[in-house]
Amino acid sequence: MSDHVYKTLELTGSSTTGIEDAVGTAIAKASETVRNMQWFEVVQTRGHIEDGKVAHWQVTIKVGFTLE
After folding, report:
1. Chain segment 16-35, per-residue pLDDT in tens
2. Do 30 and 24 form a contact (C-beta atoms < 8 A)?
3. Which of 10, 26, 32, 65 is the most core-located residue (most Cβ within 10 A)?
């Protein structure tokens, strides 16, 4: 196994359906421009309430990717 150097970036994804979808949305969007993503860590979860119901989930994640 070779040694790696990782850089991290922080993203916040949102979804009306759930936490996993919010994470997936953030990763999918980042993958359009960021190469070599390897892992993520959830650092914050919050939501938006409308009319007494959850309207949106917002999940902040740190994504690690290897430097070339």
Report:
1. 999 999 999 999 999 999 99
2. no
3. 26
